[in-house]
């Protein structure tokens, strides 16, 4: 992906712990984000705390 100039948006690569260890990045602007979407014939809700400026994922809950 790096060779193609693409950034990975996978949950694991966005986790704050991984980013802090490998890139020394810490969250500063944390927001609660809600995403509702259709999946498996019903609605699912994805709640997360993220730092959107740095594409960091702090916490997530799917229900």
Q: What does the model show?
A:
- GO terms for molecular function: 4 iron, 4 sulfur cluster binding; metal ion binding.
- One of its GO terms (biological process) is tRNA wobble base 5-methoxycarbonylmethyl-2-thiouridinylation.
- InterPro entries: ELP3.
- The protein has 63 residues and is of the alpha+beta class.
- It has one domain (11-62).
- Helix content is 19%, strand content 41%.
- It contains two helices and three strands, in the order ααβββ.
- The protein has helices spanning 11-14, 16-23, and strands at 31-39, 42-51, 56-62.
- Strands 1-2-3 form a three-stranded antiparallel beta sheet.
- Strand 2 (42-51) and strand 3 form a beta hairpin.
- The chain is globular and about 40 Å long.
- The termini are far apart.
- The mean pLDDT is 87.
Shape: globular
Main sheet properties = 3 strands, antiparallel
| Percent of residues in β-strands | 35-45%
| Strand order in the sheet with the most strands | 1-2-3
Query: Uncertain spans, ≥5 residues at pLDDT below 50?
Result: none
Query: Pairing-aware structural class of the strands and helices?
Result: alpha+beta
Question: How large is the radius of gyration?
Answer: 13 Å
Portion of residues in helices? 10-25%
Average pLDDT number? 87
